[in-house]
Structure formats: structure tokens, C-alpha cells
Design brief:
- The complex is a heterodimer of chains A (236) and B (169).
- Helix content of chain A is 71%, strand content 6%.
- With 236 residues, chain A is mainly alpha-helical.
- Chain A is globular, with a radius of gyration of 21 Å.
- Chain B is mainly α and 169 residues long.
- Chain B has one domain (33-163).
- The longest helix of chain B has 134 residues, at 13-146.
- Chain B is rod-shaped, with a radius of gyration of 66 Å.
- The chains are: A mainly alpha (236), B mainly alpha (169).
- Chains A and B meet through strand 1, strand 2, helix 1, helix 2 and helix 4 of A and helix 1 of B.
- Chain B: It is a single-pass membrane protein.
- Chain B: Its main location: membrane.
Chain lengths: 236, 169
């Protein structure tokens, strides 16, 4: 169960080549899906365009449930990219994982805390950026001492807690799913009887993992918009 | 190792950097090549639909107005027709009355004229008769005076005259 990561060091930065590979694959898949869906745009949508428009309305509704569309509209593309990227990333680790020379190459990029925490930090940083940009620094800074000044330490902790929970929730769900799949496929399926016994729980767990992957993509996007709304909305 | 990625293998900033750059790049590319155009067309459709609805509403309003106008016209023309018929009837009634009046007056006049003429005629006849009787009596008297005749002659004469008178008539 313990696989090495294919590490590569350059300029004092360590690259996990598996992550690099999987991030690239995920990005390419998302981009290809989106471009294929919007290749033949028509007023009367068909097939893939319908699907992407549905995703678009879905994200729009997520944003609308947190803030008014006038301020939230600017996060539409961010939300779309997040939900599609995370969903595709979650799905990638499900069908198989590739291990070469004891090094894990094919997995969900979101099964690595570095990736999820990077996304979470980016989102929280963006929420701070937009908080300052839309309301000015004064209003933004006042947000840390309202409603009571002594809540300031809590507010600071909250920001870090938000980042950590946002990233680790996604990581934990996907990583746990992959661990269990690896256990079922690798440890239980030794010998004929074990393989037969492992078929049904593997199928069940893969189905459940699809569900969890979709839910986690939705939750990540939802929470992104919730944190954005905290910083951007007028009533805060 | 499982707890937080590759801790202990040096700073794993490479992954962070790569993830960040890839995500932002993906977002930019998607915005440019996929979502931007899609949002454009969705907005366009929204406008199109709004336009259509507006148009339909306008048409509906227009149709309603036209129907109202038509109804008004219908009502007016019906009223006019009613008025025309009423007038014609009244005119006919009046004419009838007038004609009857005129006929009655004419008849009265004719009757009056006839009566007058009869009266006149009668007067004339009376006058003529009176004259005749007078002249005749004068004639007879003169004849009687002219001739002192015998009774026989006298009778003969009278009968002669009477005969004469009868023939003269």
C-alpha cells in the first residue's frame, strides 16, 4: 500500500512528477470537454452544449444562493472551472491506478493534500483580494473586528481553518476512496476466491466514489462561493 | 508520508506552483475558448427570448385593440342602421299622413265645387224658366188682346200656341 512518489528536484523546488502528470491530464480533459461542447454554438442548444449550459446554470444557482448576481457574476468562470476540474480530477483515480517500480503514477490529483490545499489557499486568497478590491481596505479590515473587537483572534484563526478544512475535506474524501479501492484490488484480490469476493465491494465502492467525487466537487465550489460572499457581500 | 504529501523530501513547492499555474491557465483558456462564447450565446438567447416575448405582448395588445375597434365599429354601424330604419319609418308615416290629408282635402274641394256648380246650374235654370214664363205670358196676353176672337177661334188659337210651344221645345 505504501507507494513512493516519483520526485524530481530542480531549482530547489521538488516536483512530484505524478502530480504534474495528473494535473496536466485533468486540465487537458476539462479543456477538451469544454471546447468540444462549445464548438458548434447555437441559439437552439443540442447535445453537449445543453450539458455545459446545465453546468453553467448549476454554478450560477450556487453563486446566486450566496450573493446577488451583480457581484457574484465575476466568479462564474472560477466556479465553472473549479467544479469541472475537481470533478474530473476525482474521477481519474477511480478506474485504475498505475504503479511503476513501486512509484505511484496514475491517481487522482485531488488525492494529494498539496494539490487540494493549493486550490483552497488560492480560493481564500482570491476572496481576500476581492474583499479589498470591491470594498476598499478599510471596510475589509473592519470585517475582522466586527461585531466585537475581541473576536479578532478568532477571525484570524477562522481564515486558516477555512483554508485547511476546504482543502483537507476534499483530499480526505478522495484519498480514502482510493485507499479503499487499492485495498480491495490489491490486498483482498489475491487468489481466485479473494478476487471473486472483491468484485462486488469494488463495484459498490467505485459507484459510491463517483457519488462522493461529484458531491465533493459541488461542496468545494459551494464553499468557495460562501467564503467569497463573506468577504464581498454588502451585509457583512 | 501519507499525512501531508511528500514532507521530508524537501520543499514541494514545485507541485504547488505547477497546480496554481495550470489552474489559472486552464481558467484563462476556458474563459477565452469555451465559457466566454457560451455565456455570450446564452446572453444572446436570453435577449432573443425577451425580445420575442415583448413582441408577442405587443402583438397581443395590438390584436386586442383591433378587436375592440372592430367591436366599436360594429356597434356603431348597427346603431346607425337602426337609426336609418327608424327615420325611414317615421318618414313613411309622415308621408302617409300627408297623402291622406291631401286626398281628403282634394275630395272636400271637389265636393264643394260640384255642389256650387249644381247650385249655380239650378239658379240659372230657374232664371231661364222664369224669363220664359214671363215672356210667354206676355205673348199670350198680347195675343189675346190682339185678337177678339170667338171662343172657337180662341180655343183653336190656344191649342195652336200650345202646340207651337210644344214644338218649340
Amino acid at each position: 500500500m505504501h507507494h513512493e512518489a516519483p520526485l524530481y528536484e530542480i531549482f530547489g523546488l521538488t516536483f512530484n512528477l505524478a502530480n504534474v502528470l495528473m494535473i496536466t491530464v485533468t486540465s487537458v480533459i476539462v479543456f477538451v470537454i469544454a471546447v468540444l461542447a462549445t464548438r458548434n454554438l447555437a441559439m437552439k442548444p443540442t447535445g453537449m452544449q445543453n450539458f455545459l449550459e446545465w453546468v453553467m446554470d448549476f454554478v450560477k444557482n450556487i453563486i446566486k444562493s450566496n450573493m446577488d448576481w451583480k457581484t457574484g457574476g465575476r466568479f462564474h468562470v472560477l466556479g465553472m472551472t473549479l467544479i469541472m476540474y475537481i470533478f474530473v480530477a476525482n474521477m481519474l483515480g477511480l478506474p485504475f491506478s498505475v504503479v511503476i517500480d513501486g512509484k505511484l503514477w496514475w491517481k487522482s490529483p485531488t488525492a494529494d493534500p498539496v494539490v487540494t490545499l493549493t486550490l483552497a489557499t488560492m480560493v481564500v486568497a482570491l476572496s481576500h483580494y476581492y474583499g479589498i478590491k470591491l470594498h476598499g481596505f478599510g471596510h475589509y479590515a473592519k470585517g475582522f473586528v466586527t461585531p466585537m473587537w475581541f473576536l479578532f483572534p478568532l477571525k484570524i484563526i477562522e481564515e486558516f481553518a477555512n483554508t485547511l478544512t476546504l482543502g483537507l475535506r476534499l483530499y480526505g474524501n478522495i484519498f480514502a476512496g482510493e485507499i479503499l479501492l487499492a485495498l480491495l484490488a490489491g490486498s483482498l484480490a489475491t487468489g481466485v476466491g479473494g478476487t471473486i469476493a472483491a468484485i462486488i465491494p469494488t463495484i459498490a465502492w467505485q459507484g459510491f466514489s463517483i457519488f462522493v467525487g461529484a458531491i465533493q466537487a459541488f461542496i468545494f465550489t459551494m464553499l468557495t462561493m460562501v467564503y467569497m460572499a463573506h468577504k464581498v457581500s454588502h451585509d457583512h | 508520508m501519507f499525512v501531508l504529501g511528500a514532507a521530508g523530501h524537501g520543499f514541494n513547492g514545485g507541485d504547488i506552483l505547477f497546480q496554481l499555474i495550470m489552474f489559472l491557465l486552464l481558467m484563462l483558456l476556458l474563459r477565452k475558448y469555451a465559457f466566454g462564447p457560451l455565456m455570450g450565446i446564452m446572453k444572446q438567447r436570453e435577449e432573443h427570448i425577451a425580445n420575442e416575448i415583448e413582441q408577442a405582448e405587443k402583438h397581443h395588445q395590438e390584436a386586442k385593440k383591433l378587436a375592440e375597434e372592430q367591436r366599436e365599429l360594429m356597434k356603431k354601424s348597427r346603431q346607425e342602421a337602426q337609426a336609418l330604419i327608424e327615420e325611414a319609418r317615421k318618414l313613411g308615416e309622415e308621408q302617409k299622413e300627408q297623402i291622406i290629408q291631401a286626398a281628403r282635402a282634394e275630395a272636400e274641394r271637389l265636393k264643394e265645387a260640384a255642389k256650387k256648380e249644381i247650385e249655380q246650374e239650378k239658379e240659372q235654370a230657374m232664371a231661364a224658366l222664369r224669363q220664359q214664363v214671363a215672356s210667354l205670358s206676355v205673348l199670350i196676353a198680347s195675343k189675346v188682346i190682339e185678337k177678339e176672337l170667338s171662343e172657337q177661334d180662341q180655343a183653336k188659337l190656344i191649342s195652336e200656341y200650345i202646340q207651337e210651344v210644344g214644338e218649340g221645345r
